[in-house]
Design a protein that fits this description.
This protein is mainly α. Helix content is 63%, strand content 2%. The protein contains 36 helices and 5 strands. Helix 5 packs parallel to helix 7 and helix 18 (428-443) packs antiparallel against helix 20.
């Protein structure tokens, strides 16, 4: 119908405009000169002919305007002979597919999952028809792969965000989530190829389309064939690297800084292909010539590898990327060590001129902005995250843990480099960098036995260049590991403060306790006063404090100091939250109020499995120590009503009461049952059966010297069995022969005399030693009458009631009392500062002049109690 309204000369104009549209997308360089000249001549002739014909022919008016002349009819018949573009059904389906993909992309920009769900179903219906007649279009592979990535990002953001989707959007997201995984399984191979190299995958599709185009007839086919026959190729195989806009990329030493500038400016932007940037920098590294160029490329390349984790939904860096980053970091240190006039420091001015290289003046150093220490810390953190995510009971964990050797080598090498910088420039930032890297090195060795650390140090010094040395630690440090730890800690004590100094102190105490130096580790812990200030430190330092405290308790137990072990471990094990306090697991409660952000932080603070303290062994040691103290105490308080309220371990008492309430108790099935059954035999006086049960627990084999531990336990059971027997049967004896006790408990008479003497001196036993007859003479104390026992009980209950009353009064009147005190002043009559006799109100004096705090506040749980609360 459009030709029906054209004038006589409109046909030539239409054909010329069609040719312009057809060839408008082609570059002018690809056209041959002959075709261009012929087109210009044809166009000029047609234009002149049409203009002359319009001038010669009279214009029609009225109804004659719609009547065709003979010339017009002939021209129309010629146009009907021209080729007409007819689209096949396949092309139409592809166009419909492309339009659907565009709708999905638009819906992703506004986060409209309702539209995405509907269009995704439509897309799958369209692709089913296309696959029947040919291969799967790559635009479809790109669409479903990008949609799956976008869906994963949306789900991850939704878990963290407090803002929830509306009902329709959530329904659409769930629908896509259910269908896309099942759908993408059929195209998994193509999706993997696309994700490996997105641009090359799509460019291959464009080349295929371009090569199939010359099959069409007409002058356009000739033009496209001419283009394909004369490509702009630069390499041996006939291909060149082409950018997004069709420009050939050339990597030359002069263009390195420009490429790096483009990469740096694109950091943090959306839809940045960092894999392509990494490949670009690897090619730039091949053509680099100067040390400055290599240093700049390494700094940008390592940072870009770290960005791969932060920009994706992955929680940790992959093993391949981590090893590549570690290798490049070692190469960077090699370049810096070989070129001492190039220095990488924080806060240096950046070189702005990308057209020329900076020149190093004689006797001066070229300062390049960067941070060696930050790279080491990031490598350390990424390895820790990787170990957190891997199942520790698989071979993959062992293989990943082997990378710690290369990491430790990088840490030591970085320390030497930063030391060299510190010698030349003794400023506060340099000293802070040295402290940061020394504490990292210390934290890799403090929890390991000396034999393991010696192997680690020896392998590290072998891997380092022979010319490198350290002023802090010498090459002979591998042979004396305790001296190495002491040297690193002393350096940090002298040159650091705050958290770094506290962590160095805790690492040294942990190492000493691990190597059986109980008294020294205990004295250092007391002199450091960390138990008073630990609540003011960060959570990771509090975790290290808890681990150190537990290790001191374990060391005391191995040394046979049962009372010290139980007293030290009670703060951690008595809380029932050993996993959380030691960062070895998260206890998920049913009605927990923990937000997703807090739970994520808790998981990030978890220690890798190779740093864990065996919680089952810890519980066994705590219960065993409590048994040695509680069983004699229960025997002592059984005949003394005034001592019944005394409890050493509530956890042990609770387990023992639960076991006694059982109607039928079988043989012990686990570690806890073994200790409880042993305690029952010990309380009954059968110390041999108690020893047999306690030594049969298999958990003791995990300790360094299990036979020594079992011998110590047998001796402790004999001694506590003797004390339990004396507490239980003292009221029934007037005298008791020491030789009889020696035969009963298989102890030396001197040992029995020492135990009985200690009990008498501590007022635990009303008796005297008859050294002439080698006997114990018991003295009958005045037994309380029933009325006196009830009076003692009443006094205890009255004291509890008074404390509860004071606590309630303090809570209710605190606000009014403070306001009244501000009005009256501290010295006014009726103020709360003083009471009768000048004694502070709200509490009363305890024996010895100690004042009791109101409301049962006299027990604060110690410094560790604050750490537990935190």
């Amino acid at each position: 119908m459009s030709r029906f309204f054209h004038g006589g000369g409109s046909d030539s104009e239409t054909s010329s405009s069609d040719e312009e549209e057809l060839y408008s997308d082609r570059d002018e360089e690809e056209r041959s000169e002959e075709e261009e000249s012929s087109e210009e001549e044809d166009f000029s002739e047609n234009d002149s002919t049409s203009s002359s014909e319009d001038e010669d022919k009279p214009r029609k008016t009225g109804a004659n305007f719609f009547i065709k002349d003979e010339g017009e009819v002939s021209d129309e018949s010629e146009d009907e002979g021209a080729p007409v573009v007819v689209k096949s059904a396949k092309d139409k389906r592809l166009e419909e597919l492309e339009s659907t993909v565009k709708l999905i992309d638009n819906a992703e920009r506004i986060n409209d999952w309702t539209v995405i769900s509907a269009e995704f179903d439509k897309l799958n219906r369209q692709i089913a028809k296309i696959i029947q007649s040919g291969p799967t279009p790559k635009i479809y592979i790109k669409a479903i792969a990008d949609l799956e990535d976008f869906m994963n990002e949306a789900i991850a953001k939704q878990k963290v965000s407090t803002k929830k989707l509306n009902a329709s959007n959530a329904k659409g997201l769930n629908a896509v989530k259910q269908r896309i995984k099942k759908n993408n399984k059929d195209f998994a191979t193509e999706i993997d190829k696309y994700r490996e190299d997105k641009e090359r995958y799509m460019e291959a599709d464009e080349v295929e389309v371009t090569r199939t185009a010359p099959r069409a007839a007409g002058p356009s086919a000739v033009r496209i064939a001419a283009t394909l026959d004369t490509p702009n190729l630069t390499d041996e195989e006939g291909f060149s690297t082409v950018g997004r806009h069709g420009k050939t990329l050339q990597y030359t030493p002069e263009s390195i800084l420009k490429h790096l500038r483009i990469i740096v400016e694109s950091r943090g932007k959306k839809n940045t292909d960092r894999q392509e940037q990494i490949r670009t920098m690897e090619k730039l590294l091949e053509v680099s010539q100067t040390p400055y160029q290599r240093i700049r490329i390494y700094l940008t390349l390592i940072a870009t590898r770290f960005d791969l984790t932060s920009s994706s939904t992955a929680t940790h860096m992959s093993s391949e990327q981590w090893k590549a980053a570690e290798s490049e970091f070692s190469s960077l240190l090699s370049v810096l060590e070989a070129n001492r006039d190039h220095v990488v420091v924080e806060g240096a001015e950046e070189w702005e001129d990308d057209d020329k290289q900076p020149q190093v003046a004689a006797g001066e150093a070229l300062r390049i902005p960067g941070s060696i220490v930050s790279f080491v810390e990031r490598l350390d953190d990424e390895l820790t995250r990787s170990l957190q995510q891997i199942d520790p009971h698989t071979a993959e964990y062992i293989e990943r843990l082997s990378d710690e050797q290369s990491l430790y080598t990088a840490i030591a090498r970085s320390q030497f480099y930063v030391e060299e910088l510190g010698k030349a420039d003794k400023t506060e930032p340099k000293q802070e960098s040295i402290n940061r890297i020394v504490i990292r090195r210390l934290e890799h060795i403090y929890f390991k036995p000396s034999q393991v650390v010696a192997i680690l140090e020896e392998a590290t010094w072998k891997a380092l260049p022979s010319q490198l040395d350290s002023a802090i630690t010498s090459r002979g440090s591998a042979s004396d590991v305790p001296e190495l730890v002491q040297t690193l800690c002393n350096y940090l004590f002298k040159h650091s403060d705050g958290i770094i100094r506290a962590r160095a102190m805790l690492c040294q105490i942990y190492f000493l306790a691990l190597h059986e130096n109980y008294y020294r580790s205990r004295d250092l812990m007391l002199m450091s006063h960390l138990s008073e200030n630990i609540a003011n430190f960060d959570v990771s330092t509090q975790i290290l404090f808890n681990r150190t405290l537990v290790q001191i308790g374990l060391c005391a137990f191995r040394a046979g100091l049962v009372y010290e072990a139980q007293n030290t471990l009670s703060e951690i094990c008595g809380s029932g939250r050993q996993k959380e306090l030691l960062a070895q697991g998260i206890i998920l409660q049913r009605y927990s109020t923990v937000s997703p952000e807090q739970e994520k932080l808790e998981r990030q603070r978890q220690l890798p499995f190779h740093m864990h303290i065996n919680l089952e062994l810890l519980e066994c040691i705590y219960l065993t120590s409590s048994m040695f103290l509680e069983v004699p105490l229960m025997a002592q308080t059984s005949s003394s009503p005034e001592m019944k309220r005394r409890v050493i371990s509530k956890t042990f008492r609770r387990m023992l009461d639960y076991n006694e309430r059982q109607v039928f108790t079988g043989p012990p099935e686990n570690t806890r049952d073994g200790v409880i059954m042993s305690a029952k035999f010990l309380a009954a006086g059968d110390w041999k059966k108690a020893t047999e049960l306690l030594n049969s627990i298999k958990i003791w084999d995990l300790m360094a010297q299990p036979e020594k531990i079992k011998t110590m336990l047998a001796e402790q059971i004999q001694e506590e069995g003797l004390r339990t027997y004396l507490f239980t049967y003292a009221p029934f004896y007037d005298t008791l022969s020491i030789s009889t006790l020696a035969n009963m408990f298989e102890l030396a008479e001197k040992k029995i005399i020492s135990i009985v003497s200690r009990m008498i001196s501590h007022d635990e036993l009303a008796a005297a030693l008859d050294q002439v007859n080698d006997a114990i003479v018991f003295t009958k104390g005045v037994e309380l009458s029933r009325l006196q026992s009830q009076i003692v009980t009443l006094a205890d209950k009255s004291m509890s009631l008074l404390e509860a009353n004071e606590k309630t009064l303090e809570q209710r009147t605190q606000g009014m009392a403070n306001a009244f005190q501000r009005e009256q002043g501290p010295g006014a009559r009726g103020g709360r500062n003083t009471g009768r006799g000048g004694q502070a109100r709200g509490g009363h004096r305890l024996p010895g002049g100690q004042q009791r705090r109101p409301g049962n506040q006299q027990f604060s749980g110690g410094a560790l109690g604050g750490a537990i609360k935190a």
